[in-house]
Amino acid sequence: MENIQSVKWNYDLITNTKCSYQVMLIDGTIMSVPLDEANSDYQAIQEWVAEGNTITDNGGGE
Amino acid sequence: MTLSTIPTRALSEQGINFRNLIINGDMSIAQRGTSQAGISTGYNTCDRWRTQQQIGAFTQSQSTDVPSGQGFATSLKMDCTTANASPGSTSQLSVHQRLEGQMLQSIKKGTPNAESLTMSFWVKSNKTGTYTAEINDDDNSRSISKSYTIDTADTWEKKTITFEGDTTGTLDNDNARSFEVLWWLDAGSDLKSGTFNTSWNSTTLANRVSSSQVSLADNTANEWYITGVQLEVGTSASDFEFLPYDVNLQRCLRYFERMKCLSGGDIVLMLGHHFATGNSYGKLTYYPKRSSPSLSIPSLSNIYYLSNGNLANPNLVQINGSGLQTAEIRVDASNQTAGGSGWLRINLSQVGFDLSAEL
Known about the structure:
The complex is a heterodimer. By secondary structure, chain A is of the alpha+beta class. Chain A contains one helix and three strands; from the N terminus they run E-E-E-H. Helices cover 18% and strands 37% of the residues of chain A. The N and C termini of chain A lie far apart (27 Å). Chain B is mainly β. Chain B is 4% helix and 41% strand. In chain B, strands 2-3-6-11-8-9-12 form a seven-stranded antiparallel beta sheet, with no helix packed on it. Classes of the chains: A alpha+beta, B mainly beta.
């Protein structure tokens, strides 16, 4: 996955815990990425963060 | 009685024993679409075939231009649409396939009995000259490259390349990427300035690509086709192993699945019992994946949630938790009331839910 525009945390409304990433790509595609280290999109997000980018955290209860 | 799988013996009698380590080598499966202009790095058309695109601009397509009389119906085409004859020093342009370690244990890499691998494929280009094929061992940062030559312009040619076995570096027996098999189409100077690496060694950037490598991005007249790709154990190439379409599709579905709408108005997900006003949960079931898949949606404006006698575009579709075959999906929409139910519909042809577990 390239061309990441932004990433934010998704929360499980029931447990109020972080459950996945919501990614917006530059072309407008919306991607929901599970917290699975074997998922290559998950790996790409970790690289994106390592490059100095920040995952938005609006907290739970949305 | 309906058979959900084809017995292995039946396939063997047809000469099929899954000897091809490459998936979708005949380019017959293209769930993402048959043509993509201005491709970016990643997966664009034919399933399992990834592109590293950092030089010029290309349209990639699933073409019906194929070698005559060989049984192929489709090929993968790279068509240069914006030229760049002076790429950045580390820029790359390649078509490649990534393979899981657990699919490669039979080659015995990293043991005294390491097997040679033979790659065969049909290729065609207006641009004659030297090209590079490479195998990267991502588990051990080792690689081997070989060159091949396109001799005659605009003519399908079959190429066969043997890569010697590597007695160093075992491959992890898991679902992660172990091999990347590449067909180089162009490369910056830093990738071809060293001694061309024609035997297994630790990967060195400068040695990966032949110094004579053709620059496919140097002219918008350039195009390159490939099909009939096979990578098999041994030092000789056998005939291409044609798989039944449904078997080939199933192999691709392990990595990518598009739940698409063909005619408008297809239901993708039923959601029952809204947890609270404005949100609900449902279960999405799919073909078993390599890993928990990502869920991609081109735009929420093409998706409708129907409930309580009306429809609304959801404002959120997310994976709450997922496994190899199912995911819990949360959908938030304005027409949901606590205790109700509804369904999610895609309302535009060829748009779909994409589930990706690619390497």
